[in-house]
Recover the amino acids of this structure.
């Protein structure tokens, strides 16, 4: 596999399918770390450069056949750096969210339900001061200022499921009907002035 030609793209597209059925070793002259990262993400068990010795190729085949991953040291360091850097670049808030404890996640859920500190404390059988301390810790970890920002953040980042908009709209429509009853009968709702 060399570069991004038609043959190589076809092989890359087939990698996930091949990797489910066999252990795949990619032999390439391309030293592009992006290519190496991509083929590993697609399921290849190893990469051997065509410039490496025949002994390296034989050893790579043996290791991959045994179920091990085969990369030389330089490729391994580059690949690990690239994959971990890409993960944090794709989702900069992942580390923040990951730092929340299970209890803090419970509190986030309760805050998005509209509960105040006192109600959170009762629900979790903790003191109100402890609930307040947890909330302060959550806001600090996520770099947020208040409960409203926390609720919006939690819905947008998927920490809690967003309430169904249709249900909210239906309940709003039902309450409006009680407040603003529509005129009955076939006549116009306009009044005539005499």
């Amino acid at each position: 596999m060399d570069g991004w030609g038609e043959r190589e793209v076809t092989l890359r597209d087939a990698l996930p399918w091949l990797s489910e059925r066999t252990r795949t070793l990619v032999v390439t002259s391309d030293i592009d770390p992006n290519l190496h990262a991509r083929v590993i993400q697609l399921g290849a068990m190893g990469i051997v450069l065509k410039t490496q010795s025949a002994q390296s190729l034989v050893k790579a085949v043996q290791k991959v056949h045994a179920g091990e991953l085969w990369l030389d040291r330089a490729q391994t360091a580059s690949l690990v750096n690239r994959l971990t850097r890409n993960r944090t670049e794709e989702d900069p808030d992942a580390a923040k969210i990951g730092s929340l404890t299970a209890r803090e996640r419970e509190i986030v859920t309760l805050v998005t339900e509209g509960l105040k500190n006192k109600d959170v404390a009762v629900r979790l059988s903790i003191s109100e001061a402890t609930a307040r301390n947890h909330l302060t810790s959550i806001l600090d970890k996520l770099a947020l200022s208040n409960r409203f920002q926390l609720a919006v953040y939690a819905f947008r980042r998927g920490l809690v499921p967003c309430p169904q908009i249709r249900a909210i709209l239906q309940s709003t429509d039902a309450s409006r009907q009680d407040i603003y009853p529509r005129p009955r009968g076939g006549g116009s709702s306009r009044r005539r002035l005499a």
